[in-house]
Structures are given as C-alpha cells and as structure tokens.
Amino acid sequence: MRSKPETARTRASRLSRRSRPPIPTLGDVERRGRAALPESVRGYVDGGAAEERTLRENVAAFGRWALVPKVLEGHDEFDLSTTILGTEVAAPFFLSPTAYQRKVHPAGERGTARAAARAGILAVFSTLSSDRLEEIAAAVPPGPRWFQLYAQPEIDATLELVGRAQRAGFSAIVLTADTPLLGSRDRQGRSGFALAASVPIGNGPNVVSPPRPFTGKGPRYRFTTPGRPTWAMLERIRESTRLPLVVKGILSPGDALRAVELGARGILVSNHGGRQLDRAPAALDALPGVVDAVAGRAEVYMDGGARRGSDLLIALALGARAVGLGRPPLWALAAAGEAGVERFLELLSAELATSLALLGRRSVQGLDRSALAPAPTASRGP
Ligand SMILES: Cc1cc2nc3c(=O)[nH]c(=O)nc-3n(C[C@H](O)[C@H](O)[C@H](O)COP(=O)(O)O)c2cc1C
Fold first, then answer.
1. Ligand 1 contact via 130 beta carbon (within 6 Å)
2. Is there a catalytic annotation at residue 105?
C-alpha cells in the first residue's frame, strides 16, 4: 500500500521534530511540559485535593527509603522486561489512566497509545478519554492496553463500555473504585479549568463524568447521580466479561482481600494521585500491607508520586509487580506530543536500567525488601 503524500505542513513538522535536540533529562520533561501548559490546564494536571497533603506525601514517601547496593556482582546484562497479567512488557512500569488528554496536546490519547505501543509499555486509557476507545485501539497494533472504567449511572451503560473495550481489543478492565464523587479540587477550581466543546468526552454523549463535588447548602447532602461503584457492581462487571478485572484506588489490606475474593486479578494501590481524599495515606506507604495481605493471589501494582528510576525500584522492592505514572507522561505529552511521550519512556527506561545495574541486580524480577533500608530522617528529601 502506498503511503499518503506528505504535505508541506507535515514535512515542516517532521523536519522541525528532527532538528530539535531531544529533551535531555526527566527533569526537563517535567519543566518543559509544565511550562507548555496554559495556567488553567496546569491547575487541572498538577493539582490535588484540598490542602494537597496526600499529593505531597505520595512523593515524600519515596524519600523514606534508601536503596542499598550489592557490589562486585559482575553482571553484564540487565533485564527490565516482565509480565503483567501474563502479557510481556518491556519494563515494569505503565501509563496510568488520565482523562481528556487532548486538553494537554492535540495528539491526545492516540499519540500516547502510539508511543507506548512502540516502546512495548502498558498504557491504561480512561473512560473519560478525549479520543474514542475504538480510535485509540485502531491507532496502534495490538499490544498491552487496558481500559479504565468509571461506573455509569446505569449498569447497562457501564457494561456496554466493558463490552466495547473487550471488542476493541483492550486486554483488562480497570475499575476505579475511589471516585464515587470528585474530591475537593481546590487548585483546579482556582485555575479556571473547564472542558471546551473542542475536547469531547470521546466515548460518547452517554458517558458521564464522575459526579461533581458536593455543592450547595447542608446539612444533608446527596449524590446527584447514582453512578457510584459498589462491591455488587464489581461482581456484575466481573461476570459480564472474560477480561481480567483490576481494581484501582485500594489503600487497605481489607479492601484488597475483598476484591480478590470477588475475583479481581489485580489490585492497583492508589489514591488517585492525591486528587480524592486529602490525608489518605501515601500510595507507597499503603503498598506493603496490601502486598502481604494479597500474598500472591493477585498481582499488586501502585501509582502515585513515582517520578524517577530509583522510585520504581523502591516500589518494586516493596512488592509491586509494576508501577503506574499519571502526571509525568502528561507533562511529556504537553512538552512535545507523541515524540515527548516516546522520549519520556526512553529516559525512564534508561534511568531504571542504570539504577538497577548500580543496585547490583540483573533483573527487576526477584527484587525484594533486602534492597531497601529506611532513609535517615535528616536526609528524607521529597
Ligand atoms: C490530570 C489527571 C487525570 C486523571 N484522570 C483519571 C481518570 O480518568 N481515571 C482514573 O482512574 N484516574 C485518573 N487519574 C489518576 C491517575 O490514574 C493516577 O492514579 C495518578 O495520576 C498517579 O499519581 P501521579 O500523577 O503522581 O503519578 C488522573 C490523574 C491526573 C493527574
């Protein structure tokens, strides 16, 4: 098949991409991405809930651990690859679901999907994507790709989304359990973030955003829509699909066990990047208790606050099978679209490999808590 002739515009954009030096470091990805966003969108991406204590704690929790290297091990090959729910991936990290990616860059979810697929990295796409889930799937060859599910007001509409994701070739359903309503998004509210008509909810007019935070006068408050996830709904979803179910937003061993007993194959320890309950525990702090409780009956992942290769090693050593990143790939998308996400994945993989080698380990599999020591209190930076 002949490829389409190149227009002057796509040629100019290809040449300018080629001539621009690649983003040098992970720190630059964040700086450039944040600088590229208008104030209102930056407030939406960077902000957390209320006083943003949990948002800060997510990052600070990684500073409570030190990595203890083994020396003179003589490894000359390093292997980042692993499997996630049986699917081979190039590295033990993934792109967590984030809504409305076309607000961040016109490349949107399709750009993110292409970059992740080329890198062999798992990407999770939100119910509130700005591209339709079918368009995201069609943009890339089959690969590791999951669909994040927000409960809809009607169970039939919820199951319809599950069916669409299955037919489109997504390989797992990630039910977000921590969003019966939106947290108090103070920074987002102050920044004036609004969804323009030019950024649709790609999955269709029947797909609703999670309910807004409570507004109006007390003393009695009611949910304004019934689109709230429940344990009974989790069972309905599991029964309705052959795809494995992952539950996102769990922070306690008890909830993790209950989800596993109801058939969840994966638990994603997460506080939604500090955007829901302020003062919820840091995701990293909640991880070991969940890992111990689940005891191998399901895979356990975490997201929240991971920024560098060393962060990934700490979470893996505490028992995460893989670590999700939410804001960093959005900064990368904002900085340079699809090429930015590609560069971010390259930089993070390279840094993970470097840190692994310096830790004296050959493979990310088999990392355990013996690689860790508590960081001295005085040096606990963010
Ligand atoms: C801008 C933004 C949008 C998000 N949208 C969703 C979403 O649609 N569904 C969901 O389950 N989580 C969503 N999250 C939460 C992320 O999946 C993830 O849990 C969190 O960002 C991880 O923290 P980190 O940003 O520190 O890596 C969103 C997070 C951000 C920052």
1. no
2. no
Whether the Cβ atoms of residue 170 and residue 109 lie closer than 8 Å to each other:
no
pLDDT one-digit tens code per residue, 134-173: 999 999 888 899 999 999 988 999 999 999 999 999 999 9
Question: Alpha carbon of 26 to those of 38, 112, 135, 265: distances in Å?
Answer: 21, 17, 29, 32
Per-residue pLDDT tens digits for 4-26: 555 655 555 555 555 678 999 99
The pLDDT tens digits for 113-124 are 999 999 999 999
Yes or no: say if 122 and 89 are a contact pair by the CB < 8 Å rule: yes
Q: Which residue has the tokens 């995201």?
A: 136
Q: Is the CB of 302 under 6 A from ligand 1?
A: no
Residue whose CA lies nearest to ligand 1 atom number 11: 176
Can you give the pTM of this predicted structure?
Answer: 0.93
Q: How many other CB atoms are found less than 10 A from the CB of residue 353?
A: 16
> What are the structural domains, with CATH classification, of the chain?
24-213+228-365 (3.20.20.70)
Q: Which amino acid is at 46?
A: D
